[in-house]
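note to self: dont lose this again. the chain is below, predicted strucutre after it. 174 aa total, dont forget to put it in the shared folder this time
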Amino acid sequence: MLITTDESSIKTMTPTPPEKYNWSRLNRLQLGKFAEYLVKMEFVLYGCDVFSSEVDDHGIDFVIRTKAGNHFDVQVKSFRVIPGKNTPYVFLEKQKFQIHSSRLLVLVHFVINQPPTLYLLPSSVNGEPNPLFVSRDYGEGRQSAPEWGMTLSKRNIERLSQESAFHIVVDTLI
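---
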């Protein structure tokens, strides 16, 4: 912080939002870890307790306990849209992310020069897989394991904004 005393006024110099939200400075792993910590703190702000997993080998980044005492397993995925690049695709291996009323997915959308946007998706809606998830079963002999996938096109991001904004969905859980 720079403080000057020019004509009895004090000025502080802080990074401008474009510098602060320059997500291109972070590599894929850094961005993912940032997203995970951000989501944990958002749940804390809503009064939830957060329990971290030491190892992420079961598709669960952490567990939350709501004020009402309900527990949810949370998986966080981050993505960024880069002009001129392919449309982002997020997937969760079915073996590690089973559809269940206590399983949540949080997507964190990073856009250069903007704060991140969070989307909260219950994996199960009325006992069925969330309609935003696309089931992809590649079959035997294929390189990819069966997965739940989501292409993050402009249309799907608009749908996420309307149906899965974090602040709206979290209020239904706590």
